[in-house]
From TrEMBL:
Pfam families attached to this UniProt entry: FeS_assembly_P (PF01883), ParA (PF10609)
Organism annotation: Bacterioplanes sanyensis
Protein name: Iron-sulfur cluster carrier protein
Iron is among the record's keywords: yes
Coiled coil start-end: none
Key words of the record: ATP-binding, Hydrolase, Iron, Iron-sulfur, Metal-binding, Nucleotide-binding
Domain MIP18 family-like positions: 7-79
Family that this chain belongs to: In the N-terminal section; belongs to the MIP18 family.
NCBIfam families: PRK11670.1
UniProt-annotated binding residues for ATP: G108, K109, G110, G111, V112, G113, K114, S115
InterPro entries: FSCA_dom_sf, MIP18-like, Mrp-like_CS, Mrp/NBP35_ATP-bd, NUBPL-like, P-loop_NTPase, YlxH/NBP35
Amino acid sequence: MSQITQSQVEQAIQGYTDPYLNSDLVSAGALRCVSISNNNEIEVELHLQYPSGFLGNGVEQMLQTAIENIDGCQSASVKISWEVLENKSQNSVDAIEQVKNIVAVASGKGGVGKSTTSVNLALALAKDGAKVGLLDADIYGPSQGIMLGVEEGTRPETIDNKWFVPIEAHGIKTMSMAYLVTESTPMVWRGPMVAGALQQILTQTQWGELDYLIIDMPPGTGDIQLTLSQKFPVSGAVIVTTPQDIALADAKKGIEMFNKVNIPVMGMIENMSMHICSNCGHAEPIFGQDGADELAQRYDTQVLGSLPLSKYIREQSDAGTPVVAADDCSEVSMMYRHAARHLAVALMHQAQNRQAMPSIEISDD
Ligand SMILES: Nc1ncnc2c1ncn2[C@@H]1O[C@H](COP(=O)(O)OP(=O)(O)OP(=O)(O)O)[C@@H](O)[C@H]1O
C-alpha cells in the first residue's frame, strides 16, 4: 500500500470552493492540520475566520468523501471550526471590550430601508452562529424595538446604576435610545448632546462577548453622523441605498463621509432593487438599475446584496419578526444571509490585512 501524501489530501480538499471566500480552503489558508497515519488513516482540521456555521456537517462530509476517494485511504475525518477575527477601528476612540467588530449601517437618504437592513443583517450573522448586538442609533426614528417585537415601555435593567443590560430579542442583544426615553422626553436634542448620549449608551452597555455589533445610524451625512462616526470605534461601514438617482447621489456622500473619517466602506446594500409582482412574479426595476454597481466600482467597494421591494419584508418587520427571524430559509432571508456573509468576509479580510501591516496613526493636525 503506497503512503498517501499531504499534497494528495490538499488536492482533494481543493475540489471545494467556498462561495464567500471565492477560493478553496487550502488557498484561503484554512488548513490547520493534516495527520496521515502509516495506515493511511487521515485526519484534517480546517479553521475559518468568519461565521461559517452554515457549512454544518454537509461540507465536512463532502470533504471527507473526497479524501476517502484517494486511492489507498483507510478512513478520513474532517473537522471545520471557526472564530471571528477582531477588527479594531483605526480611529483613536477606545475599542469596546469584548466586541470584535463594530459595523455602522448608514444611508445618505432617509427611508431607504437602513433599519430593516440593519436588523436583518444582524439576525443573519446570528443565524450563522455569531454573537451579535444591535445598537439603534437612529435618533430620528428609532424603530428597532418595534421591528424586534420588544414590547413598548420595556426598559433595560441596570447594574450598579452604571451599566445597561441589553434587551435580547430573536437571539441578538439590542439597545436603543427608544428604550430609555419616554413620550414626554422627545428627541429634541441636537448634535453634540445626541452624539454624547449615544456614545454613553454604546460604552455603558454590558454587551458581553460579541463578534459583531451593528449600529443602525441616523439617516444622512450631516454633522451628527460625522460626529458619531468619529466617536464610535467603527471597524467598517455599510451603505444602504435604493437604485434611484437621488438616493445614489446621497449614498455617494455617505461613502465620502466615511472616507473622510478613515472608516472603510465594506460594501453597499441595494434595497428595493426590484418590484416582484405578487400575482404574476414579473420583476420590474422600478427605481432604476445598475446604479449601485457603478457607484461601488467607482469607490472601489462592492454591492453586498440586492433586496427586492417585498410586501413580506415590510409586513414581517411591522409585526416584530423580521424576515430572517421569521423564516431563515425564505428567498429574501437567504438574500440577507448571503449579504451578511459577504460582509463578514470583507471584515475578515480587512482584519487579516491589518494584522499583517504595521499600524500607522492618522490625525487631523
Ligand atoms: N425591501 C423592502 N421591501 C418592502 N418594504 C421595505 C423594504 N425595506 C424597507 N421597507 C419598508 O420601508 C419602510 C422604511 O424602512 P426603514 O425604516 O428600514 O428605513 P430607514 O432607511 O431606516 O428609514 P429612516 O430614514 O426613517 O430611519 C418601512 O416600512 C419598511 O418596512
